[in-house]
Specification:
- This protein has 274 residues and is an all-alpha fold.
- The protein has 14 helices and no strands.
- Helix 3 packs across helix 6, helix 6 (101-120) packs across helix 8 (145-151) and helix 8 crosses helix 10 (178-205).
- It is flat.
Length: 274
């Protein structure tokens, strides 16, 4: 079985050979030995060459094109061929920056999260920065569900590392350090990515208000049918009218309150010393 990377590389090579072959054919037909065809062949050369972009192709432009394709066609519509067509370039230019679809997805998610991190950074209120970061991630995944899917795939991809660092910087500025910093940061990042990703999964099933209400009504009814426990019945009733965004932020506030309570910090230190 052929490795996917080999297949893509082979297609890239074929693409480049097509370019070279077309130029060679035009040059041979209308070269100096055939002056009657020289004017026509020059016109063909110009038409052929201007069908490709002549400005330098940067990684940033590739990322922008990838995000646009993901937003309009979804992950299933993202291919290296689609990116080259969107940018009107050859595959060789794309392979100079990325080599496969996985790298495109990671770069696109990193591009989206970079904007979120930059918007939340700064200021003299680390708690506010954490809330702004968490909400920015929630809204980015809500608007672009593919971001949530990508963030769940690889814990060491650049986008996830950006989130970890931003949370760590804010917690450190609040005086959290050592084991408490690692534990609190891990718990908070896992909550933010997990809750936001779960919301995005629901949003894909119910993309508008009417569909969302129908989805929540059905889910609440199913919960209530499966378990008669009063706690489950109460949760099912609340599920129908709850606000995902407000509930998510409430969870962030609960985490922050727990992190900075003296009891929580003492418990972390006590466990670490055992």
């Amino acid at each position: 079985m052929q490795d996917p990377g080999q297949g893509e590389a082979a297609e890239a090579g074929a693409d480049d050979r097509d370019v070279h072959g077309a130029l060679f054919s035009v040059g041979w037909t209308g070269g100096p030995m055939n002056p009657l065809l020289d004017q026509r062949s020059n016109s063909v050369k110009m038409t052929f060459m201007t069908s490709r972009r002549t400005d330098a192709l940067s990684r940033e432009r590739i990322v922008e094109a990838t995000i646009q394709i993901l937003d309009t066609a979804g992950e299933s519509g993202l291919t290296l061929r689609a990116v080259t067509a969107h940018l009107a370039t050859g595959r060789g230019a794309i392979y100079h920056h990325v080599t496969n679809k996985d790298e495109l997805l990671a770069a696109a998610a990193d591009g989206v999260i970079s904007q979120v991190v930059a918007a939340a950074a700064g200021g003299d209120d680390p708690r506010g920065s954490i809330r702004a970061l968490a909400l920015g991630i929630f809204e980015a995944i809500d608007a672009r569900p593919w971001v949530g899917v990508q963030l769940s795939r690889e814990p060491f991809q650049p986008a996830v590392l950006q989130i970890w660092k931003a949370v760590g910087v804010s917690l450190s500025a609040l005086g959290v350090g050592g084991t408490a910093l690692a534990d609190a940061g891990s718990a908070l990042v896992n909550y933010v990515l997990g809750a936001a990703g779960q919301h995005a999964a629901g949003a894909r099933r119910a993309p508008d208000g009417a569909a969302r209400k129908e989805f929540l009504d059905g889910l609440a009814a199913e919960w209530a049918r499966q378990d008669s426990d009063p706690l489950v019945q109460e949760s099912a009733a609340l599920l129908r009218e709850h606000d995902d965004r407000a509930q998510f932020l409430a969870g962030v506030n609960i985490f922050l309150a727990g992190i900075f309570s003296s009891e929580a910090i003492a418990a972390v230190r006590r466990d670490a010393s055992d």
